[in-house]
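Person: At home tonight, work slowly through the protein below, taking as long as you need, and write a paragraph about the fold.
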Amino acid sequence: MDYTTIQYEAGDRIATITLNRPERLNAINDEMVEELGDAYRRAEGDPEVWTVIVTGAGRALCAGADVTKIPQTEGGQKSFAGAGEGYLGTFRQWDAPQEATAPFREMAKPILCAVNGICCGAGLDLVTTSDIAIASDRATFFDPHVSIGIVSGREMVRLARALPINVAMRVALMGKHERLSAERAYQLGLVSEVVPHDQLMARAREVAAIVNSNAPLAVRGTRLGIRKGLSLPLYEAELLAESYRLRVAQSGDALEGPRSFLEKRDPRWQAR
């Protein structure tokens, strides 16, 4: 697929996906949804890619859905039917819409979000569903849904699990009038690091390279155990994580780790 709303680059075992509609603050339209879906599948299916970085071009990571392009039904509500799909004819129309979000529940590879600027609405999903989020000191976070007459659905449900409930409620109910700075987001744990704006992507790649210096299958099993376990009772989550441990223990990398330690050399991971 040739991309017009995003950029895709891969090298040094890192895929970088950049939302690229800077004139619209990287607002999400149908074309971007399709292109991001293809890019996420491309990164996940590429054995040379071990980690994914998601960021934005220009002043914003993502300003949410492009409200100038939202299709309307006669009743004024958004239609979730895609091209060639009848109304409620496919599962994705019944499921919570994901828009720009990576299929984080199905992907094994870790996702790092580099928040370069404005992050609001559906753009918040890119932060709350990533595994590591870092921010430029120019980043701002808010949710304008109620200010334009729309219920904030999955975005704030996810944010309420990442922030203290009274903070998430304040962001949700005050709409565009309440904004979190990068430093405040860091204090609350929404992002794990704030860096000078011109150093953001260098730092993102540095963090991704550090992740990639570890055994890739162990990284993926660890990520999946944590991600899947969040929706399970503790005991079942422990059992699931242990099942991933047992699977990876049978890999060549699980032998390479102890061997390289005993031989006093850097490990040569093969992801198999």
In short: The chain has two domains: 6-212, 216-262. The longest helix spans residues 30-45. The beta strands are 6-11, 14-19, 51-56, 60-62, 111-115, 118-120, 132-136, 140-142, 180-181, 193-195.
